[in-house]
Amino acid sequence: MMKRLVPRPLLTFTILVLWLMLASDISVGQVLLGTAIGLVIPIVTAPFWPERLRIVRPLVGIRLFLVLLYDIVVANLRVARLVLGPTDKLRSQFVEVPLDIDDRFVAVLLGSVVALTPGTVSIDIDRTRRALLVHALDLDDPDELVRLIKTRYEVPLKETFGC
Hints:
The structure is a single chain. This protein is mainly alpha-helical. It has 2 domains: 2-48, no CATH class; 58-161, no CATH class. Helices cover 58% and strands 12% of the residues. It has 6 helices and 3 strands; from the N terminus they run H-H-H-H-E-H-E-E-H. The protein has a 3-stranded antiparallel sheet with strand order 1-3-2, with helices on one face. Strand 2 (120-126) and strand 3 form a beta hairpin.
């Protein structure tokens, strides 16, 4: 019975915490509303979760989250400087990143992580060719971007989810 009411306890808790962080004040009403939203969203989205997500190394996931936060801040500053400067010198290009991930969800998570860092956008995940197509706003060395995505994001995601 409890499994049907709270199918994803970690997601429910995360939604509650995020809700309280966004709320202007923390009150009983906000906690109840955040809990209700945290309970409803996993139930409504259950058909979209093909299998139970298994976190094998949570500390690696926490480290990845901190690296991502750092990268977002640095990339925001870099993109602001690029956009406020002469835009005719931007060297945007598409880069194909070969994937070593078998799990669909983790591959989508990698695409989302790449899209979260300003200056890069995930365009497509080609599962047959096992590649992530990324557009970079300003890029000197495509191989360096591939190396960065694989070492900073893909490897920790694989370790976190054991795939």
